């Protein structure tokens, strides 16, 4: 997820949304739900001390500075609801019911190639297209807006201080990986403002970081640091972790 919106816009859009789906007569959450949320928030894992020193332009720096891993953000029940929502959009995409640039499902012609992508909020061009548009966000290309349930996810992340209320996503790219799908080494385009984040569902995998990532074979990469991404976790990328170190997702062991 990436992008930036004002706090007023966020409040207008997210004020009445709830992942739990229940509200009391006054429009707020029931007391029991608020208590449960407080307990979950107290148990949230937050790791912000990632460190690996590499020499970059003659200087020794921590290339993982700016990474944060927040665990336990989404419960098992919330994960199921979110995944079912994504599968519903996938089915609609296959039927041609989404805007043309929202849904992409390439042919799986080799190991590591073929992950499904859905773009909400903005259209990102991964490579020079047939119209001569360079890589980056295409301003005049329309895709579907961020679905309400994904807005609820954003509200949760802001409320729990996983995301800053001053830098809230206004776009989202959903990747559906089958076994052996991957994302090759890259640094995200600066059309996506920092920080941005990735949320993990269905199965755990590793994300690999380093200034020099080696391609060992189709879908196989190695680097200086490998970080496991637990189910329901949110990884924040900023600073050197977003702009100095490349990152990749090697071929995943199971659908996610």
From TrEMBL:
Query: What is a single molecular function from GO for this protein?
Result: mRNA binding
User: Where does the source fall among the domains of life?
Assistant: Eukaryota
Q: Where is the Fe2OG dioxygenase domain?
A: 168-256
Q: Which GO terms describe its biological process?
A: mRNA catabolic process
- From the UniProt entry, list the residue stretches annotated as the region Disordered: 1-36
Q: Which SUPFAM superfamilies match?
A: Clavaminate synthase-like
Question: What Gene3D superfamilies is this protein classified in?
Answer: Alpha-ketoglutarate-dependent dioxygenase AlkB-like
Protein family per UniProt = Belongs to the alkB family.
This one is known as Fe2OG dioxygenase domain-containing protein
Question: Native species of this protein?
Answer: Platanthera zijinensis
